[in-house]
Amino acid sequence: MQQLEQHLAKTLAPIYLISSDEVLLVQEARDLIRGAAQKAQYTERLSLTVEAGSDWGKLLYAETHSLSLFAERRIIELQLAGNKPNPATSKILQSIAAAPLDNTILIITANKFDSKTEQTSWYKALDKAGVTLQIWPIPLEQLPAWIMQRGKKSGLNLTLDAAKFLADQVEGNLLAAAQEIEKFGLLQISGTLDQTTLAKIVTDNSRFDIFSLVECALSGDSQRCLRILDNLRAEDTEPVLILWALSRELRTLAEISKQAKQGVALSSLFAKYRIWEKRQPKVKRFLQQHQPAACLKMLADAAKIDRTIKGAGEGNVWDAFQKLTLQMAGNAILI
Asked: How far apart are CA 203 and CA 198, in angstroms?
């Protein structure tokens, strides 16, 4: 990733091909390129997600050769996931590589390629015309160091023992580790964390019940949702933090639900929205329980809670939290 940052500080290539099985690293590499492109006034962005059997090659060719309606410079992001070009789309990729446009940056992301794929004509053409990034998984023995480095970016100084503890907790999952570190920041935890302190935070700190509340709602455990809310209220937890966690989750779920209804594969959506493997069954359950309209209704209810917290709406905040979490759990009948 450091080499990519150094490259982007100097120049921008017309084509980037990023491949890895580490979803988080792929997304962060894409975000670095996107950020550098936006600084260079590439202000229009189009995202294309490839579905198995779809005729995406013609659409990509049309987009790369059409005039921009809103800006002179644009970014086109093509998400291949595990789909590989057929002979027709292979030729289209080769034609794009042979004559890349000055006003367009093409970012292609995909699962890790095997050595056979690297020998194909389309891969070689893209490699010659732009930049190919093969991002390797971080070995387990290097994960604590990665966690410590990640923590420093969030203002946390994790000791080696603490980093090892967290690596064990997330079972080597980079995305899960990043999300845990993000939680520390949201809960305004800072300074030096050793293993003892970190373990106490993870197991004893009632503020983590906020995230447990979200997970229980996704799992449909309505009774535990109510118990967690009672604990949060007893601990004088700020309602705005609870609302933030619930609203954030609902916004993501509403978008996934909408796109899934439009036919986008869940595997692609899980990768796009960083739903790591252990959470996927809970999210699938939620999506089976709730249609896109129901997700939007719950977001509207969250907005009402926000107004109540700010004194601009009537009602009891904690009663509203109970209603919302039970709706998320699919047990609104208990209200």
From this structure: 9
Residue type, 47: S
Residue 212 token pair: 């447990």
Q: Which string of DSSP letters, residue by residue, matches 114-145? A: PTTGGGSHHHHHHHHHSEEEEPPPPPGGGHHH
Closest CA to 77 of 275, 272, 277: 272
Whole-model pTM: value is: 0.64
CB 253 within 8 A of CB 286: yes
Q: Where are the alpha helices (DSSP H) in the chain?
A: 2-10, 23-39, 56-64, 87-98, 121-129, 143-153, 160-169, 174-186, 195-204, 209-219, 222-234, 239-261, 266-272, 280-289, 292-309, 317-329
Please measure the distance between the N-terminal and C-terminal CA atoms of the chain and give it in whole angstroms: 49
Strands 74-81, 104-110: pairing is parallel
User: What tens digit of pLDDT does each residue of 90-149 get?
Assistant: 999 999 999 888 789 999 998 888 889 999 999 999 999 999 999 988 888 899 999 999
